From TrEMBL:
<keyword id="KW-1133">Transmembrane helix</keyword>
<keyword id="KW-0732">Signal</keyword>
<keyword id="KW-0472">Membrane</keyword>
<protein>
    <recommendedName>
        <fullName>Transmembrane protein</fullName>
    </recommendedName>
</protein>
<dbReference type="InterPro" id="IPR021775">
    <property type="entry name" value="DUF3339"/>
</dbReference>
<keyword id="KW-0812">Transmembrane</keyword>
<feature type="signal peptide">
    <location>
        <begin position="1"/>
        <end position="22"/>
    </location>
</feature>
<feature type="transmembrane region" description="Helical">
    <location>
        <begin position="48"/>
        <end position="67"/>
    </location>
</feature>
<dbReference type="Pfam" id="PF11820">
    <property type="entry name" value="DUF3339"/>
</dbReference>
Length: 69
């Protein structure tokens, strides 16, 4: 049996937390901008920290598993 939980969670979070796709923290001149499709070094760092925190909680603390086969 293959455990697809970590793979699906990682891909979903990577797409949703791409800076500038849905939102960007911090934005130029504001705290949050939505759908501007522009990034900065600071926003990449903030989104990477958020990604690491959420994926750690979901995969290690909660233990999301999706088995196939």
């Amino acid at each position: 049996m293959a455990d697809w939980g970590p793979v699906l969670i990682a891909v979903l979070l990577f797409v949703l937390l791409s800076p500038g796709l849905l939102f960007q923290i911090p934005a130029k001149g504001r705290v949050v901008e939505f759908g501007n499709m522009q990034t900065s070094g600071a926003s990449i760092l903030v989104h990477a920290i958020i990604y690491f925190g959420v994926i750690t909680i979901l995969l290690i603390a909660i233990g999301v598993h999706i088995y196939t086969g």
